[in-house]
């Protein structure tokens, strides 16, 4: 009897075995080799999806002979041929075809290398895991700028930058005023303020879409699927701004690393944390305006990608998170673009599903 009790006590349960497996998996996952393999696979996926977004096209047509006449089988039925890829000559045939097939994949690359980095930089400076360009109001402000441009003069895309800077400056000014009203900053909640600003901006956007239904679809406010015109001029303006802002974040990474560990230590070492905070805020605003002009916004990209990287690899160094975020985002954006083009599945809906899982995990860890 005693022997049987000892066996039941020492025999591990299924839950204990699962916990042991999970702990071992985490240890293996966070080794340098595992990180390198995962990053390599994600880069390969991003490259494959980038090529598919350019070349893939399922098209069924009649089989033609040398005289361009339809070929029939023995039952006198026309023979159908299915092609899955377009030729490079079809892509480069005209400047119009080149723009149609290359613009979106290139735009997604620029979004991937910038927004997740901005998201993690904001999370460090605000000391809040839920901070992102979307939750702090910068993406809604940029969307409103784009909608105003469509309502006033759709052909002049430069107005998007003008309105974007005005609305983003308004968002930053509100936060600056509210932050200075509390000397200790203990009650300053950037995310809550960002949600309030986003709600206000969305309301204004809905009113504009109601007043201008022919130019602006009301669903744009909620889905974020903007009717972007593929114009190389937009890319010529936005690409240098995006690359410059991304470089700023990498330059700030040593200071952000210290701030991520300890704000008091950062101040002791002479780092002007307020200057870093507002530099990140302004740079993020510029990024959001530049990316909105060339691509529909992916609302929660700057929120979930940094948190996925931190949860998966348990590393918080900004330079590491920046680089891995870019790789994750490239794979995700190129894959979601392929799904969106070929299956009419909203990119933001896919991101929302992933975000739901990530946020549930974050809430579970807090409890």
TrEMBL record:
Record membrane topology: Multi-pass membrane protein
InterPro entries (alphabetical): ABC_BtuC-like, ABC_transptr_permease_BtuC
Coiled-coil ranges (or none): none
Biological process per Gene Ontology, one example term: siderophore-iron import into cell
Molecular functions per Gene Ontology: transmembrane transporter activity
Superkingdom to which the source organism belongs: Bacteria
CDD domains registered for this protein in UniProt: TM_ABC_iron-siderophores_like (cd06550)
Segments passing through the bilayer: 33-56, 100-122, 134-152, 158-178, 190-211, 235-254, 275-292, 320-339, 345-363
GO terms under cellular component: plasma membrane
Keywords: Cell membrane, Membrane, Transmembrane, Transmembrane helix, Transport
Protein's cellular compartments: Cell membrane
Chief place where the protein resides: membrane
Family: Belongs to the binding-protein-dependent transport system permease family. FecCD subfamily.
Protein name per its UniProtKB record: Iron ABC transporter permease
Organism name: Ureaplasma diversum
